[in-house]
Each structure stands twice: as C-alpha cells, then as structure tokens.
Amino acid sequence: MTFAFTEEKIAMTNNQDLTQTLLIEDEEISRTITRMFLKGICAVDFAENGEIGYEMANQKQYEIIFMDIGLGRGMNGMQTAQKIKQFDNYKNTPIVALTAYAMKGDKEEFLANGCTHYISRPVDKQKLIQLVKDILKEL
Hints:
This protein has 5 helices and 5 strands; from the N terminus they run E-H-E-H-E-H-E-H-E-H.
C-alpha cells in the first residue's frame, strides 16, 4: 500500500497479521511512545494532523483509530473523528480518544462527539494494551 505522504509524516509497518491501527497525533514523542507500547500487538500508521488522518482513513481500512484531541492547527480530534465516521466503512470502527484532556466532563464530551473509547495521558502501557484487547473482543 502506498500513500502520497512523506516518510516524515508516516511510519508504517509491513506486518499485515497485526491489528491495523491509525494514530492521529501531532506530537512526535507521543507517537514514539504509543508505537513502543503497541509493538507486536498492532501495526500502527501515523498521521500528524486531522487532515492527513482523514485522508489515510479514506485510503486504507483500519480496525482501530487512536485520536489525539488537541491537534494544533486544522481539525481537532473530535472534528476528525466525526468526519471519519461519515465514511460507511468506519461507522462502527472504534475511535479511541488518547488525550491529555482529563477534566470532569471531557470523557463524556469526546464519547458524544465521535469517539467510542477514552484513555487519558499519561498513558499507562498496561491499560492501553488491555483496552486494545477489549476492543478486539468486541470486533
């Protein structure tokens, strides 16, 4: 599979046996940590903003999407999640809000606006892995 995006924007793995996931995240350190946490469990493609993530979802089918909510310029995570959910093949795809927003009411807002699951930062590796396992049981 070839994307019209630079290597700098996307780090892809060729292991098609793993759960295909997309992480839409603007912070490089968060992308690196998430990749390390999910190594051997998920094949993770990366998008550094909502617009690129939306286009990647349009070009490839992902089983799980991890969504940062605060994406800097352009679409935020909720807007991106809502747009991706408009694709027929993504109506039932889990979108996990993976975010530092952890104030009272944030989780409920994200779940009401396109995300199906929520995990706050800093991310606990075991909680993230367990969430992925739980999601895969639901698929």
